[in-house]
Amino acid sequence: MDGYRRSLCALALGLLVVAAPACKKKTDTAAAAPDTSMAAPAPAPAAFAVQSVEVGKQVGSDKRVTSPSTTFAPKDTIYASVATEGAAPSKTIAARWTFGSGKLVKADSQTIAPSGPEATEFHITKPSGWPVGKYKVEISVDGNPAGSKEFEVRK
Amino acid sequence: MPDPKEPDFSDVESGSSSTAPPPKPSGGQTYTVVKGDSLSKIAKRFYGSAGEWKKIYEANKDAIKNPDLIHPGQTFRIPDA
User: N or C: which end of chain A has fewer CB within 10 A?
Assistant: First the structure.
């Protein structure tokens, strides 16, 4: 019986000795030499992100502010241009305009399907004239803060 | 009653535009079932593969109780391939 047990142990030990290096080799090979027979994956599209927020008195056909400014006259139309990059099936860009310590002036949003570098403009105007003071426009994407810009209205 | 010291922004006008297009409406095209149709046949017609029937079923679960039993006149959303 002891002989039989010894034989079994020897056999099991032998199998372990043979199997262990084989397993290790497979792992090493996979790590050291990735399979190059498969086509390289296409580069992932750039993640959507806000690049910049600019304010000014007018925008061009590319929806970008032509000459950024942080001071405005009471009768000016105020533009905020949001430059973005990256592609996405749907993104909602929102602009929240506030006055002084946070009084809401206006909130607006635009839902887009960007496919690369894009620009989205928001504008506000007040026929009776803007009260003099400090203002802020806060930009969010899908509800997440993505930038802001402060500006002032002077007489 | 509005505070007379607080500025009034009720006449503010706003707008927005973008170089990016608006998102495509979800759901793609629609198809109205005719006599002899099955989800597999519709899938073959739109996707080139009958095996894609589940895609149509998933998009129209509210209208399809039994995927083996669809009726002429039912209109289904056909998701983009």
Answer: N
**Closest to A125 (Cβ–Cβ): which among B13, B18, B24?**
B13
Q: What ipTM did this prediction achieve?
A: 0.71
Write down the H helix ranges in B1-81: 39-47, 53-59
Contact flag B18-A126 (C-beta cutoff 8 Å):
no
Assign A37 a pLDDT band (cuts: 50, 70, 90): very low
Beta strands, E only, A37-129? 49-56, 71-72, 78-85, 91-99, 103-112, 118-125
Tens digits of residue pLDDT in A108-145 = 999 999 999 999 999 999 999 999 999 999 999 999 99
For residues A51 and A79, what is the distance between their CA atoms, to the nearest angstrom?
Answer: 17
Distance CA A32, CA A48 (A): 34
CB contact under 8 A, B9 and A63: no
CB contact set of A9 (below 8 Å; sequence gap of 6+) = none
Nearest to B22 among A62, A111, A131 (CB): A111
3-class state of residue A141 by DSSP:
strand
